[in-house]
Amino acid sequence: MTSPETSGPADTLFIAVAQLNPTVGDVAGNLALARRTAASARDAGADLVVFPELFISGYPPEDLVLKPAFQQACRAAIETLADESVDGPALLIGSPWVDEGRLHNSVLLLEEGRISAIRHKVDLPNYGVFDEKRVFAAGPLPGPIPFRGVRLGVPICEDIWGPDVVECLTETGAEILIVPNGSPYRRSVYAERENTVVARVVESNLPLLYVNQVGGQDELVFDGASFALNPDRFLALQFPGFMERVRLSRWQRFENGWKCLGANMADRIEGDQADYAACVVGLRDYVNKNRFPGVVLGLSGGIDSALVAAMAVDALGPERVHCIMLPYRYTSQESRSDAAAVAEALAVRYDIVPIAAAVEGVEATLAPLFAGTRRDVTEENLQSRVRGALLMSVSNKFGSLVLTTGNKSEMSTGYATLYGDMNGGFNPVKDLYKSEVFRLARLRNRWKPADALGPDGLVIPERVIDKAPTAELAEGQKDEDSLPPYAELDAILERLVEREEPVAKVITDGFDAQTVTRVERLLNTAEYKRRQAAPGVKVTGRNFGRGRRYPVTNRFSEG
Ligand SMILES: Nc1ncnc2c1ncn2[C@@H]1O[C@H](COP(=O)(O)OP(=O)(O)OC[C@H]2O[C@@H]([n+]3cccc(C(=O)O)c3)[C@H](O)[C@@H]2O)[C@@H](O)[C@H]1O
Ligand SMILES: Nc1ncnc2c1ncn2[C@@H]1O[C@H](COP(=O)(O)OP(=O)(O)OP(=O)(O)O)[C@@H](O)[C@H]1O
Ligand SMILES: NC(=O)CC[C@H](N)C(=O)O
To answer: Active site at which residues (predicted)?
Structure first.
């Protein structure tokens, strides 16, 4: 342990890494969480506690941060924490900060009852899901922050994704790099972060502590997975993904510089497991941070609603999940028993609400208007719309949030009914293609996240996974009557959506020309539906929502 009185630069530092889940806009709650963390870090003997990016406001605060009252609330919270820092530990904490009339994304060092240093983010990300240039002004290139005789370089998140800020910090004498982050999960993120951090560590020859937030914020999920890398690229610290954790790390000065000696090593889940955990955390935080008592969903006996039900139970526990089977004349016996089997395996409340009277009532009401017309997709969609209306009524009556279940293949092609099965407030599988829904359902039958509240073992019966997908809106209907087989559809969509490949390239790579052209047309025309769709968890590099923003009115087509 070091203290300011033991003069001379410190040779050892105890740094508490606060991988926490703040809530956007909840300044009082975030302040309370920072205060509790500071108190327990003090008891553990920390010199310094490091919080993630913009901890006091929550990240990303979007246009909320433009409100002067919000800026003032964040500033007041920081000043309170600074006042309280008299007995230590020091806090390195992120907040929006107005400096000379410009609003910055900043980090502040609070110690000995005052704000002893402020640094502003230099590189404001403005691509993909990020819009920081819209709300923040860039800061000047920073110098290190002196702390107990040690020069701390504090680049903020995107500041390490290029070489300039770290180069400047190194040239001005930084000895340790400490990076507060608001870095959201996407499948490729671990490789991206590793490449970035290794590059900065090699260029600077400095150890780097990467502190990321955890938790869901609308469609983004932050995975945490904080870590420390020493100059020899040795991974000295690894926190788990998708859960809060606060631990002390020990840093030591050697002849050739500083090193992290921390021993907190956790397994970091990846691949499908990480996707599943992201969906669960995103759903849990959306429901809890928006203060819903629970969720309700239509359970059809199909795989999409079965997977959503499993995710909901893992997120919230069975007592907060209500599943309703809404059968009509096209609902098979198989679907009825499969839905019941899923509900039983998940131990959720399960009701059966037949929709015939409502569907037939609406049909009779419309009969004079529709006289002389043929039955078509209108009557099919009516079934979906009646289900949507009934689920929304349950939501109104009991306050539960309706979960909608359309996967990314359906969202891409418009294969869902507007104001029908698209009704709902949140969609945990929105960014998963149908082929991935199958994979995650199989995965959930043999594995669940460590903090999942659902039962172990088989929760989605094999038959639900193996049978041919159907909307059951007409006799004998199968999805593949209207859409290309999912394996082919998803491979084409992945190229058009995630990779933004030209149609001509997808065709020369061996996909059927007519199918590719049709899929491109469906993708373009369905934008109007996606604009009205509920938000859902982002897991890919490019999700519908913040990640891919196309015009609705759009005459361009490559086909
Ligand atoms: N550019 C635009 N901007 C704004 N609104 C626009 C629009 N173009 C059409 N519209 C409106 O949208 C309506 C058409 O959309 P909508 O009413 O949804 O109907 P529509 O897309 O014609 O039909 C729904 C499709 O989804 C399938 N489905 C439904 C339910 C579940 C599943 C499943 O397996 O999960 C599949 C169903 O088999 C059918 O192929 C038009 O009548 C018009 O009112
Ligand atoms: N009979 C039903 N009872 C309850 N909900 C239903 C029923 N049919 C459809 N739904 C709801 O509408 C959504 C769209 O379902 P649909 O069967 O049309 O296609 P799907 O995309 O294959 O979904 P799933 O795999 O869940 O069946 C379902 O996920 C479910 O939430
Ligand atoms: N908050 C940020 O600056 C995030 C941007 C960064 N490239 C990331 O996702 O990790």
So the answer is: 53, 121, 157
Nearest CA to ligand 3 atom 4: 183
Q: Is 168 a catalytic residue?
A: no
Nearest to 162 by CA among 121, 133, 101, 134: 121
How many domains is the chain built from?
2
d(CA 491, CA 329): 34
Q: Indicate if 381 and 246 belong to the same structural domain.
A: no
Does ligand 3 lie within 6 Å of residue 161's CB atom? Answer: yes
The CATH number covering residue 293 comes to: 3.40.50.620
> Catalytic: 121?
yes
pLDDT at 265: 82
pLDDT-derived band of residue 3, with 50, 70 and 90 as boundaries? very low
pLDDT of residue 7: 58
Do 244 and 321 sit in the same domain of this protein?
A: no
516 in a structural domain: no
531, part of any domain: no
380 is known as an active-site residue: no
What is the span of the domain harbouring residue 244?
12-268
Residue 176 CA to residue 155 CA, distance in Å, equals 11
Task: Tell me if 30 is assigned to some domain.
Answer: yes
Q: What is the mean pLDDT of the chain?
A: 96
CA-proximal residue: ligand 3, atom 10 (nearest): 183
One domain for residues 376 and 401: yes
pTM equals: 0.96
Angle of CA points 475, 478, 484, to nearest 5° = 150
Residues in contact with ligand 2 (CB, 6 Å cut-off): 297-300, 302-305, 325-327, 331, 387, 405, 410, 421, 469, 471-472
Measured N-to-C along each axis, helices 486-493 and 513-525 cross at an angle, to the nearest 10 degrees, of: 70
Structure-block tokens of residue 237: 């610290």
| Same domain for 466 and 396 | yes
Which ipTM was obtained for this model?
Answer: 0.90
